[in-house]
Amino acid sequence: MKSLVEPPPGREAAHPEPELEEASREAVLRELESILTSTYFLHAGRCKQFLRYVVEHRLAGQQEKLKERTIGTEVFQRPPGYATGDDPVVRVQAGEVRRRLEQYYQTAPQDSATGSAIRIELPVGSYSPVFHRKSAAAPARNPARRATEPEPEPQTAPSHRLLYSMLVLVIVAAAVLTAWAIHRSAGQKSALAEFWSPVFATRQPVLICLAKPVAYRPNEDIYRLYSRTHPGTFQTEADRANNPLPLDPDTKLTWGDLFVYADYGVAAGDVYAATAVSTLLGRLDKPSQLRIGANYTYADLRNSPAVVIGGFNNRWTMQLTSNLHFAFIEDNQDYMIRERIPGGRVWHTRLGPQGETLEDFGIVSRLVDSKTGQFTITVAGIGPKGTQAAGEFASDAQYLEEGLRNAPSNWQKGNLEIVVQTTVTDSVAGPPHAIAAYYW
Q1: Angle between the 89-107 and 45-59 helix axes, to the nearest 10 degrees?
Q2: Between 296 and which of 22, 96, 300, 360 could a Cys-Cys bridge form, CB atoms 3.0 to 4.6 Å apart?
Q3: Cα–Cα distance, 293 to 270 (Å, whole number)
Q4: What are the CA-CA distances from residue 30 to residues 52, 119, 398, 405 (Å)?
């Protein structure tokens, strides 16, 4: 393929490439739009931003714009002078763009009569794209032999020695292929290692983020009032913190009888999930930090890989997953997981006669290309048991192996969502089971 743009070595262009004709520039831009509207880029917002930025600035001859820190600042809103060694968002995104471009050109029409005559590439180790004009297909050889060509000599039957040599070669080749297959199998990563591998793209610790909903508690006067008619009860903080206050259902309380108790509010299912994830990251020798409630912000999520835990009680989960294939939906106080396609499936928590949870559902999402620009996993359920089950699924090798058994061959490089189900017995969540999945 002939390159349309070849800047002089050692010198960066300061103006639009003079050797790139206007017709060729238009062809590059048409090819860019074709790529960005393809299935490989259509829903990959970060990749689209990145590729459009580098192509347009390359066409404008603005090589100074194609530096890692500049791209991080202008495309991914990183602060000027940020540490690129600690935050490899540009390098990670460039790798993802190269992968998607390769997939695009594997399926794109190669004939210039039916497809584009331009090919856009992003060389490894560079953020400056190159544009090639696709070479015409080589003419097919004329099967007709010229009259002046000599007739081929008649084929003779192979000798026994030749047959023996061929047999030996076949046996040796089979042995080599077998050894290669064994070596390849031994070198393959487990589903667990592949699932979590993007967290090692940066030295930043993984943030484990829990929600802390607002919790209210009766003030001391209510406890003392109850103790007057029930001597010996609720005399200590241990009593008040560990025993429910059995007031008569008709007891009247005013808003002043309650106060916000800042130290309470983390859901039990979220804690179980966070513990499972933290334990796993410790085994993988990846540092992590626990953040609860107001102790983390969107800016934190943009600067570190994160595991966001909790469903309807965590606003960041709801924002990060709102436009995904499977989403948490609240409809007139009805809580569910819904598949966001016409006629899509819906899952609800199943309750028993006393209101106890009998079956719950959760979502594990793995977002290489998340809204934050960082690798993000969400572990969330409709209810606490669903969140607990999702946490177990994401941190257990056996569950992941089973759940990803039918995943596409290149799932490790993309995003995914898996819906999990758990049966609850005596308030204890059972093993999680993957019941639906979506990859992109």
Answers
A1: 90
A2: 300
A3: 12
A4: 12, 11, 46, 39
| pLDDT of res. 202 | 86
With a CB cutoff of 8 Å and minimum separation 6, the contacts of 34 are 108, 116
Which string of DSSP letters, residue by residue, matches 162-175?
A: HHHHHHHHHHHHHH
- Report whether pLDDT(151) > 60: no
- Domain coordinates in residue numbering, the chain: 2-133, 194-212+266-439, 216-246+253-260
Taking only the tens place, the pLDDT of each residue in 252-302 is 999 999 988 877 888 899 999 999 999 999 999 999 999 998 888 888 898
Q: Who's near 267: CB < 8 A, 6+ residues apart?
A: 211, 213, 310, 313, 384, 387
Alpha-carbon span 412 to 93, nearest angstrom: 15
Sheet of 2-3: strands edge to edge?
2-3, 130-133, 118-121
Q: Both tokens of residue 300? A: 């934190």
Neighbouring C-beta atoms of residue 31, cutoff 10 Å = 19
Asked if residues 47 and 369 have their Cβ atoms less than 8 Å apart, the reply is yes
Q: What is the DSSP string of 167-205?
A: HHHHHHHHHHHHHHHHHHHHHPPPHHHHHHGGGGGSSSP
Q: What is the CA radius of gyration of the chain?
A: 30
Element (H, E) at 106: helix 89-107
- The H helix count followed by the E strand count for the chain is 13, 17
What is the 3-class SS of 337-406, one letter each residue?
A: EEECCCCCCEEECEECCCCCEEEEEEEEEEECCCCCCCCEEEEEECCHHHHHHHHHHHHCHHHHHHHCCC
Among residues of the chain, what percentage have pLDDT more than 90?
A: 51
Torsion of CA 171, 174, 176, 181, to 10 degrees: -160
Beta strands 288-292 and 206-210 are parallel
- CA-nearest of 355, 436, 343 to 390 is 436
Q: E strands along 185-273, which residues? A: 206-210, 216-218, 258-260
pLDDT in tens, 304-340: 999 999 999 999 999 999 999 999 999 988 999 999 9
Q: Which two tokens stand for residue 93?
A: 């995104």
113 band by pLDDT with thresholds 50, 70 and 90: very low
